[in-house]
Amino acid sequence: MKNNYEALNKLGWSDWFAQRAICEPTDAIARVAAVDRDQLLIEGQAGQFRAKLSGSYLHHHVPEQFPCVGDWVCVERQHGDDFGIIHAVIERRTSLHRKSAGHNVEHQMIAANIDYVVIVQSCQFDFNLNRLQRYLVMILEGGAAPCILLTKTDLVDPGVLSSQLAEIASAGITAPIFPLSNVTRHGLDEFRHLLVPTKTYCFVGSSGVGKSTLINHLIGHQQLETGSTSGTGEGRHTTVRRELIRLEGGALVIDNPGMRELGIIDANEGIGDSYADISALSTGCHYRNCSHTDEPGCAVLAAVRDGEISTESLGNFHKIKEESRFNDMSYADKRKKDRNFGRYIKSAKKDLKKDK
After folding, report:
1. What DSSP string describes 219-236?
2. CB burial class (10 A; 0-12, 13-18, 19+) of residue 342?
């Protein structure tokens, strides 16, 4: 397998992926920079080019296994071909996924092989502790490290920011926090200096909180479209696709469209990590499988009565746990029906062959 690993290393390649690469000798290794329906923009030794999934891969894999931004893929490209053909996706080291929007209980992949997920919330109208905790559940379940950016600090009084920081601390959230302003650029250099070359940073948050504007500042020029700011200080959503961008300093960033829904699925470990204070206290509960609702000897409920944990935080914990449990059951049931339907089709095909 002929690959310029120095070029790949600049895109985040490491020994971890090399040990799991399943590419054929004729394949090249590349990283997915963007996905546009059935076409992918990938980048490797030969620079950027377009690629499509092979028919075999499409036939043998479910959508959540299709490559997303940040994935490493094995791609074959003949000289003179406009498109490469992707035969395999190398195992993901980390991922960020949610339940797909709407009623369908499916995993929607957001990004893969990310080192840090940057949660962006505006101090002015967007700050929401419950949503922040939901993001943390998603991030920690996927194995990446979270950090928090509180933007538009120029639009609020210092007391508002102090109150929000205190609210985050009281919820037991220990992720690093960076207040900043895209207008005054206060806090921007401090955050920029923390971006490590070859590491991948995925930015998530609601529409209009300043993600694209911030990334443009980090790039040093206007590469991503940004919306004008309304009279209330809220920006207008413009990002329409996820895209991997390499900064001049060597770090890689992924911008994301604003998310209206943050459905939790398959996130038991992430919930435990996000609510570390509740998880730690639960070891002192009288019952091993305590639900922290009305059981006698519940250490978590005792902490709520003593003011160590807020009622809101425990309520949000229960809500996310129940949502994850429901979605997990629905997903498992759907997979069972899909398998049964697949068996039925195979059986029907065999019967047709016998009749012939």
Report:
1. HTS--S--PPB-TTS-B-
2. exposed
**Model confidence pLDDT, tens digit, residues 14-32:** 999 999 999 999 899 999 9
3-state secondary structure of 214: helix
Looking at CATH, the fold of the domain delimited by 268-346 is given as: Ribonucleotide Reductase Protein R1; domain 1 (1.10.40)
Structure tokens belonging to residue 236: 């207008």
pLDDT tens, position by position, 71-103:
999 999 887 777 899 999 999 999 998 755 545
CB 243 within 8 A of CB 215: no
For residue 186, CA distances in Å to 57, 181, 192, 214 come to 48, 5, 11, 12
Single-letter amino acid, residue 244: L
Comparing CA positions, the residue from 329, 304, 330, 298 lying closest to residue 316 is 304
The answer to whether residues 41 and 34 touch, using CB atoms and an 8 Å cutoff, is yes
pTM of the predicted protein model: 0.74
The answer to whether 201 and 114 are in contact (CB under 8 A) is yes
CATH number of 5-89: 2.40.50.140
C-beta neighbour count of 140 within 10 angstroms: 21
Closest CA to 214 of 246, 180, 243: 180
Query: Looking at domain 95-255, what is its CATH homologous superfamily?
Result: P-loop containing nucleotide triphosphate hydrolases (3.40.50.300)
Q: Name residue 243's amino acid.
A: E
Q: How far apart are the first and last CA of the chain?
A: 46
What is the 8-class DSSP label of residue 195?
P
